[in-house]
Amino acid sequence: MILEKRGPWTVLARRDVYDNRWIRVTHHEVLTPAGEPGIYGTVHYKNHALGIVPVDEEGHTFLVGQHRFPFDAYSWEIPEGGGTLGVDPRESAARELKEETGLEAMNWQQLLCCDLSNSTSDERSTSFLAWGLTQGTASPDPTEQLALRRVRLTEAFRMVAAGEIQDALSVLSLQAVQLLHLQGRLPVQCA
Fold first, then answer.
1. What are 76-91's pLDDT values in tens digits?
2. What is the pTM assigned to this prediction?
3. Rg for the chain (alpha carbons), in Å?
4. CATH number, domain at 160?
């Protein structure tokens, strides 16, 4: 029995094999595009991924450092988090920026929207450039042990090029800012 068609794929059966407040993992019995029986596993994300490149008036940005469980490694990243689906991503990004860094921004510009791992998940992300910053008090989640680092934008670009920043949304967002800079389209307050 056919449950649904997804492009050239035919879904014959599906069952959720894991579910928590952040993700759901689903096992699919399928017919491949070649018409052969197969399986496909997908991860559904229950939040919208968000990233922010905050830039102060001196051309510095702020990176957040934390240990990432899946890779058992320390990671430097732009401020990131998850926003509730259906809520304006910019509104959720402002909340995440304040929560992780204590920063609030007067000005926002969307940098990009992208799918982070579309071969296995439906995780969508949006990132923003933020400037006109004021410093307040950070209030990270109890599960987060964060370090904050203020670096020149050029240093963040160097860290991406050297592989010192590997988080996909951070790499993409910082490269988008670098491209704006190279094209002379970076807001003057951030240049």
1. 999 999 999 999 999 9
2. 0.93
3. 19
4. 3.90.79.10
